[in-house]
Amino acid sequence: MQSARHPDRTRCVPVSGPRRCARVAAWLSVLLAASAGAAGATPLDYFLHTAGPAAAPTMRLGWALTALVVAVVIIVTVLLAIAIVKPRPTGFALDAVLPERGGMRWVYIGTTLSSVALMAALIYSLVVLETVAAPERRPELTIVVTAYDWWWKVEYPDDGPTSAPVVVTANEIHIPVGEPVRIALRSADVVHAFWVPQLAGKTQTIPGQTNEQWIEADRVGVYRGQCTQFCGVQHAHMAFEVVAQRPEAFAAWRAAQAQPAAATPDADAAAGKRLFAARCAGCHSVRGTPADGMQAPDLTHLGTRRLLAAGTLTNTPGHQLDWIQHAQEIKPDSLMPSIPLSVTDAAVLSAYLATLR
């Protein structure tokens, strides 16, 4: 059987039924993209290994607190088992037995040890916070990241003396390797949290204020990030990627991203451009064209990104059309509507999107 969406695909469910296979495929694509993110890394690598100086102290703190919690659980479990197994004397009365047998002494010892352990954990946490508060060198690059339900707007503003042009992209942050980068965090709607486990701890984005964080990558790679503050039904599908590049590669990427959209080379792409202006330009922008929407991701260089819809799909022509036509099935309650397209409209729109590189 074939799919009504794409004639070359096997159909997962009847056309008239719910398209659950699209959702399952979307979730699987997220996991596969994460697994292939950084030189063959597995998803656990994003939480068990660090790749930058801002993340290493936080990771050590996490392991220390984990060890403390495990030790407490083991001790309490052992004591509870002893209390259950050990026979009690006839006529046992807690008030009478504890003083006579020195039982309160163990209560005092346990309370003291717990207080010391918690105080040590507090001091260690404060030391780590101070360690990662600021990088050793002043960041030369500032990136403004604004969280939306449920995607990330990424802006590279004009950074003064270098007169670098403004770059706007979405869900993909490029940084130069070996250089600290200041991240200015904002929210356009509700509270979100910005977290790249391998590069830094998490920082909340709060409406009406700008929070700051810094990240730095020790090596070239792709590092997955995620919103870690529950922000609605698609919170789990609000991911992004940090792409760490050699300085010269980063400079070339930024220069290319600053360019306006390329001219449409053929009639199909030109027709797709007109369709985009009529159906998509109210929300999306494409620099160098009349499309100047501000409520959705900038698509000027859509083709250079690895993922779509904040990490929900891989960026392929098929997934682009799938997302446009079935957004509410793939990512329910997102602000992207499902837009029905005829076969001809889908073909010309795909031809135009292919020029956005």
TrEMBL record:
It is a multi-pass membrane protein. Residues 138-256 form the Cytochrome oxidase subunit II copper A binding domain. Keywords: Copper, Electron transport, Heme, Iron, Membrane, Metal-binding, Plasmid, Respiratory chain, Transmembrane, Transmembrane helix, Transport. The chain crosses the membrane at residues 21-41, 61-85, 106-129. Residues 267-357 form the Cytochrome c domain. It is found in: Membrane; Periplasm. This is Cytochrome aa3 subunit 2. Pfam families: COX2, Cytochrom_C. It comes from the Bacteria. SUPFAM superfamilies: Cupredoxins, Cytochrome c. Subunits I and II form the functional core of the enzyme complex. Electrons originating in cytochrome c are transferred via heme a and Cu(A) to the binuclear center formed by heme a3 and Cu(B). InterPro entries: CcO_II, CcO_II-like_C, Copper_CuA, Cupredoxin, CuRO_CcO_Caa3_II, Cyt_c-like_dom, Cyt_c-like_dom_sf, Cyt_c_oxidase_su2. Belongs to the cytochrome c oxidase subunit 2 family. It catalyses: 4 Fe(II)-[cytochrome c] + O2 + 8 H(+)(in) = 4 Fe(III)-[cytochrome c] + 2 H2O + 4 H(+)(out).
